[in-house]
Amino acid sequence: MILLFLLILKFILFYNLTHVTYSPLVVLSVDVFIFSCFYLLGNTKLKGAKSVYFGLYLILSLVMFADATYFSYFNRLPVIKELGHAGNLGDVKSAVLMLLNIKNLLFILDLPIVIYLAAKRKLDALDKFIVEKFKIRKIIIPTFFVILTGIVLLINANKLSSVKKLSLFSYHTLDIFGKLEDENSEIDVTQENFISEDEKNELTGIAKGKNFIMIQVESLNNFPIGRKYEGEEITPNLNRLIEEKGTIYAKDYFELLGAGNTSDAEFVSLHSMYPSMKNPSYEVYLDSYLYGLPKIFKDFGYDVAAYHGYKRDFWIRDRAYPHIGFDKFYAEDNFDLSDKIGMGLSDKSFFKQSAEIMKSEQKQPFFSFLITLTSHVPYEMPEETKTIKIKKEDEGSIFGNYLNAVRYTDEAIGEFIEELKQNGLYDNSVIAIYGDHHGILMNNPDDNRRVGNFVGKNFDFDTMLNIPLIIHVGGYEETKTVEGVRSQLDFAPTILNLFGISKKNYVMMGTDILSDKNPGVVFPQSYLIRGSFINDDYIFQMKRDGIFENGELRSRKTGEVVDRENARELYKRSLKEIDYSKYVLENDLLESMIKEGNTDENIEVKNNIKVRNAVEIKNKDEFESGFKKGFRTFRLEFFKSDDGFYTTADEKGNLKDLKTAKPNLMTLGDLARGYDEDVSFIIDAKNPREFADYIRKMPGLYRNLILVVKNLEDYEYISVRQNGYRIMIAGDEIDESMKASMYENNSEIIFESAFDENLKERTYFMDKEPKIYSFGETEQFEEKSDLPKEKEIKKINLNNKKADNYFRKVSANYNYETESIEIVDEKFNTIDGLKDFMADEKKKIAFISSDQAVHNLRTLKEQNFPLDRIVAVLNSYDEAQYVYKLGFYGIAFSDKMNSDEILEAIKLVDGLIVE
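Now predict its structure.
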């Protein structure tokens, strides 16, 4: 009983620390109800019940401690996937320790005592004392809590959906089952226009042909820029650069982070797309097609390289950089590390060595991306590097330490600029400097007070998230200060305009900072909740419940809270923009959008969801007949064979036996092939969840598939696992009133039947057009076309070196000890040797892996091998699933595969097959 009271007190503290302001009584009731039920269970005679209840108390205490600590830094609760990125804290244990405070520690301070009492069996004695003291039965109090909280929940049943992300239990349950991303975006992304347009101005093309040096500065806020501390400039070198001819300074420029902090600042700045909140964007989009500044500059003949004085694999940069277009990555193993501060190489040494590498190893014109490190939290600098005298009352504070860390990095940048001048690079280069993210949190009362006093106003989000952007264009004779809100989303379009590169050829969500069309607003997702915004006049802060009506709109000038209705339009636009970017990236649409000219018309056609006449079929013969009669949508049932293949045969057996009995059956391989881009298949699977999981494991996007779902439980499970395919709601288990709501949440959904007139274009009405015909009903239609011709198999020669289609056989093994690829060839035995061989544009190879083929082939892609001159030789159907969309000239199959696997793989890879 004592644990029940303690946990209720911890719940109340937790809601206070995590800013639960919407219906806190309902939120408390949810968690107390659940835990009280466990308490009652723990007092039954079921074996181990008491241990479960006690273990739950310990776990909940630890979870609340971790959540509250995380919240104090990020202003949001963590998701379980982020546990896998704990290593990205680096060597900053002291930074973690600074987050600890007595309130957070209250969640765990009692645990040693509780564990000791439990071990000595004294917890029961305490409960017994309470029972005897107040003369009540042991189960009365928990039963009372169950009844009381149950009544509260029944009375407030209409609020339960709104508090699901506030309750500790429900939040983490939703997280575990992947439902936190299930947001209501209120839009149909296919109807929105966020496509890139050029914004030409007087600065268009002024940097054409110059080198580009991009510097991302660790934890650089804007508030130290141009200010003095005790009469001394904090950033004298940056201040001087801002005032110099040729400099453009955006002083109301904002960070735009996702789950990846520093790495997401890179991702957004380089690509002008919104970051992912699931995981760091580099990880989420590692296999997605991306086209940002590194690839664009490379297309224009630039020598492209990245520099960072820390571990190569930090934020998986070793894998992400080759993928996004950086041919070279100079990490800590390329530098002399004799001068280290904090996490790694000091900024002064880093810049000095980087300048030398640029001069000696990069050919002009070049694009160099430098990421600094020294000004990393907790900003503890060696005494000899501290050049700002800190007042006694600020000594040892984060604020005081931060000022000296920023000053050191400012000095390093000043020395770097002098190096560039001495090397003759300064006047022929564009130097862009910006902060990756804020340096000081407003959540800490002490830091909030110190920064607020220093800047002379309340330390709010518009100060915390404000970072500088300074762009110096060599040879430009003017100085500009950009007024108005801008963000990292605008960085890439700005750079393209300066270099005279048309933005219209690419997909970018941002706008040139100097354009009159810049909307002057930023839509953060991290630190501020999704739906929030900052513009020139206001800060709109969404609460954790995600309900607009509970948000708060404040004036940036006065701090006064004003009518939130003034925020509604920008709130809606924020959801639309973020969801549009997410939709494009998660559905891997960038490549097709860029190749198709990047127009609104192409987007609408590509994702047209309006339904059309369909026909029910059972086999290939019926498919071919329906196709000839003009049908392009087909409905069919799928069953799983004993050996795991999906077919239209409902009998038991493995694929080979089923094909013998029914040679005209259809398989998932037939459907994935697609026949042509205009053909779609509506699939009735016996177990739709299992089928969805199967499709999810396959790479690529299956936009030609439509999965039938017949109940709400299956829909909720499948909707967050979509892999390009659409969902059709069928049957009568889902209420008509729910369908419109489901469409609001999932703009790709279609319906077998629905009576809402707004859903007409997405519904098969069955009794009128469009409808789903039985195969027998298609007799009334005349034949309109022949089946599309299948692509021919490519032929290659592995023996005759003089043949035009000769491909040299290259074998590879994976060394598990060194985690590297070993090449088995008489001419070379390393990846670098193979790359040198492939430098000759006439060389072509058939790449054969003894094992780990997928890893080895992905390595070739990540290291920018010419895939159009490589045939991937595979050993299994599973390998084919993961390789066929990587971009190789073709795919061949080894003798390790049986005939059934080869047959299915041939259907999957389509025109890539070679022999």
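The chain has 32 helices and 31 strands.
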